Every structure is written in structure tokens, then in C-alpha cells.
Structure prediction request, 299 residues.
Amino acid sequence: MAGIVILLFGYLARFFEMFFGCVQKVYCVTFYSFIQRKEPSMVRKAMAFCLTFLMIFLLVSIGSAHFGMIVPSDDMVTPNDSKRIDLKIQFAHPFEGHLMNMVKPEQFGVLARGQKTDLLNSLKEKKMEGSSTWESGFQIKRPGDHVFYVEPKPYWEPAEECFIVHYTKVVVNAFGLEEGWDEEVGLKTEIVPLTRPYGLWTGNIFQGVVKVNGKPVPYAEVEVEYYNEKGKVKSPADPFITQVIKADESGIFSYVMPREGWWGFAALNTDTKKIKHTDGQEYPIEIGAVLWVKTYDMK
Prediction:
């Protein structure tokens, strides 16, 4: 029985690693020594402990939405502002504040005035809660809209038995020239904004069209989540964490943002190809088109 408990704890440790990083090492050492005593009553209690927490973490993992994130220090740069913006690139549950480990992306760049600039080498790794996140700085030199985008490497999600790739974008306006915010980057999947994605008041409606391989996706499912950066917003129930809406027959969706701050829109689809995992089996790929916009209160 002790062997079964240790096996269960191995799975539990993987979830601790996903959500709490290095904290799981402490639990492993302590709990393993506890099991080695081999007292039947203690083993039974240990098994109940493992099963309970394993179920909790499975439910959390399945119930929480993953979002690729690009969060700039400013979404509208004026002539009086600093011309440098800092960008945070993460893979997370933005409302709850859980971070997933993110290896260096496949590509990271900016589209401005119809030209792409590769910014991959500007990324610097930053460890947070035991997980890898990324940061970059960019110097604004010309007026116009700057569309920052990232394509991550596939992330294996054991709870869903699939790989996840979220193609993520954010638009930063520079010096008041409002040109380029609706340009397509040319990613496998992306949300093309129909509403200008900056200069938004709280309560404004946002509209976008979901595309895969450049074509609209009818009735695409779109998840919406608030970046609850300091944890001030408390959810009364799980459905409030991730809002879910459906696009229409033309792939167009609409959402009214009820609070000041950053809002993420993630349109999820399944790729036509699969990826072979380390166990030799091929698994589906969830491809997400993610776009971040910011709202401001009227004051």
C-alpha cells in the first residue's frame, strides 16, 4: 500500500510543481519520510491526503483557463511619455494569478507600418514562483500602431491530454497616429480587432473576428478573462472567472468590459495536425488566438 501512496504522491508533486514551483520539493521530502514509517494507520491517512489533494488540483487545472499574455507597461505612448515600453510575456491563469512554466518562445516580434521586426533575442528570462516567464524592452521611434506578437513553443497539459499553443497579440499606439491596429500579423490563428484596441473606456464594447489560416471561424468559442494582477477581485463562483461567448456565423464576437484594467480574449480551436509526446503517442494541439486590451475608468 505504501508503494501506491508514493505513486499517488508522484502525481500530486507534478501538480505542486505546476502551481507552486519549487515548493513541491519541500512536500516531497517531508511526505516521503512520513510514508517510510510504514505504519498502516498513517499510510491510510496519507493515501486519503494524496487522493483529496490530487482531485483538488485536477479540478483547478481543468477548471482554469490558460492564457498567453503580453502585457506592456503602456498601451498608448504620447510625446510626453517615456519612449521605452517594457513587456511581460507569460503563460498563466490571469484571474487567479497562477503561472505555468514557459520555455523561450518560437517567435516574438512587432508589426509596425507593415513591417515586422524580430525581437526574439531581446527576451530575458525571469523566474517567478518557480516558473519561467519572459521580459523585453522596446524603444518607440516612430508614430503609429505597434502590434506585438508571440508564438510560444507547445505546452503539454496533462490534465487535458493535449498540447497548447497560444498565438498572442497586444497593440500599442505611438504618438497619436492611429494606423495599423487592424493589420493581420499572419499567425496560424489570430483575433483581428474590429474595435480599435486602445483608448477604451470601462463599459465600451469590444468586437473582433476570429481567424484560422486567414479565414474567419464561424461560431468560434471565445474565453474572456480579467488580469486580476493584485488579486483584488474575488469571484463568487468559478463561472465568473472565465467568461465564455460564441462568435457569430462570420466569426465576429462582442463583449462589454465591466472593469478598468487588462482584458484577455482567447479564441480556441484544434489544429489539424498532432504532436508526438515522449510516450510515443500523438496528441491534439489546442491553438488559441489571444488578444489583450486595456480599459480605463472615466475620472
Notes: The chain has two domains: 2-63, 67-296. The longest helix spans residues 40-63. The helical segments are 2-20, 23-35, 40-63.
